[in-house]
Amino acid sequence: MAQPGRLRSTVGTAGVARGGLHGHAVDRWSSRGGEGAWTYGSHMRTYSGSCHCGRVRFEIDAELDHVRVCDCSFCAKRGALVHRVPPERFRMLSEWSELSLYEWNTKTAKHYFCKTCGVFPFHRPRTAPELWGINVRCLEGVDASAIPIKYVHGSRLS
Ligand SMILES: [Zn+2]
User: Fold this and answer.
1) Do 123 and 94 share a structural domain?
2) pLDDT digits (tens, 9 = 90+) for 89-103
3) Are residues 101 and 34 part of one domain?
């Protein structure tokens, strides 16, 4: 059974920085009316994602109420905006052989890259390896700059 409430409960809203960003998520989504496939709740919808060359394609069901920006040594250079989804809301549409895997330090996190274009579409997070951390910049029709940022401190993990 899917657990739509579980991710929400682990994220909450306390750490989401809304200041300085455009409007409120609720207003933006409701004004889009009818775009995409809606599931679970009023803000949950299906997004298509891909790398740059298109060899890696995937879909997620998500409510993009925030993106995560991590300050660990890897994320600081990668620069991705990440939103986590549970495995039942992630669908890989390409062959896994299109991807390379990068691991470092504890090797718990699994960072996947397109073998051809080098773009990072998703990873398994170290602090929640059962989830998928999606690079929101790879999703179609999403203005990543308009989503509230949640700053996380991977640099504090040893
Ligand atoms: Zn590619």
Assistant:
1) yes
2) 999 999 999 999 998
3) no
State whether 60 and 33 are in the same domain. Answer: no
User: Greatest CA separation found in the chain?
Assistant: 45
Size (the chain), residues: 158
Over residues 66-92, mean pLDDT: 93
Distance from the alpha carbon of residue 21 to the mean position of ligand 1, in angstroms: 30
Output the pTM of the full model.
0.71
Torsion of CA 16, 21, 26, 29, to 10 degrees: -120
pLDDT at 17: 43
Closest by CA to 4, choosing from 89, 114, 101, 130, is: 89
Distances (CA, A) of 157 to 56, 123, 154: 30, 17, 5
Tokens of 89: 């809301």
CA of 117 to the centre of ligand 1 (A): 4
